[in-house]
Amino acid sequence: MIGEDGEKLGDFALMDARRLAADRGLDLVEIVPNRMPPVCKIMNYGRFVYQQSKKSQDSKRHQKQNQVKEVKFRIIIGEHDRATKMKQIERFLHEGHKVKATIWFKRARERSRRELGDRILDEVTQQLAEIATVESRSSVVGNQMSMILAPSRRLLEALRTERAGKAGSEDDAHAPRVRRAQRDGTG
């Protein structure tokens, strides 16, 4: 048996261990049931459960949530609009998110031209080959065709080193002030 402070109290009979825990106003909790004799600890069980839930909430709070961002294309899209959407996809990938590129067939005559949707997805894949990998490419579902892009390993490693560099350097805090002074001609 283990006491509330973590000290070893020795071997006790079950009734004696329960009585000792009750005298201290605490609970007797079986920690290692498979061992012979089983290991028990005297503790406030309600407080223990509360602390465990707080730890799990804390760990969830500090986790980075990766999201799947969606960018929708139509098969009839201008070059400038396509370039804008490609920049958007690149930005999402550089932030570490996955991107779902969706081709949306709005009209019936567009649905009959699935090869145009395939061509757009192939162009997206080719343009982003260095920074993205195709995680899945689905067939047509309803009036949509989509694929999921994930940041490439090379990009993820670059992002990690960049974040580590930003966290370690203190010179970055002064950089905006120096740039402003140079622009104004005062520095």
Short synopsis of the structure:
This protein has 187 residues and is of the alpha+beta class. The chain is built from 7 helices and 6 strands, in the order H-E-E-H-E-H-E-H-H-E-E-H-H.
Notable characteristics:
elongated; 4-stranded mixed beta sheet; alpha+beta; 187 residues; single chain; two-stranded antiparallel ribbon
Task: Reconstruct the topology from this structure.
Blueprint: H1 14-23, E1 27-32, E2 39-43, H2 45-61, E3 68-74, H3 79-94, E4 98-104, H4 108-111, H5 114-127, E5 132-137, E6 144-151, H6 153-168, H7 175-184
Parallel strand pairs: 3-4
Antiparallel strand pairs: 1-2, 4-6, 5-6
Explain how this protein is built.
Strands 3-4-6-5 form a four-stranded mixed sheet. Strand 1 and strand 2 (39-43) form a beta hairpin. The chain is an alpha+beta fold and 187 residues long. The protein is 47% helix and 21% strand.
Helical residue percent band: 40-55%
What structural category arises from helix and sheet content?
alpha+beta
Span of the ends, CA to CA: 71 Å
Shape: elongated
Q: State the order of secondary-structure elements, H for helix, E for strand.
A: HEEHEHEHHEEHH
Largest sheet: 4 strands, mixed
What's the pLDDT, averaged over the residues? 82
The number of helical runs is 7
Instruction: Quote the beta fraction.
Output: 15-25%
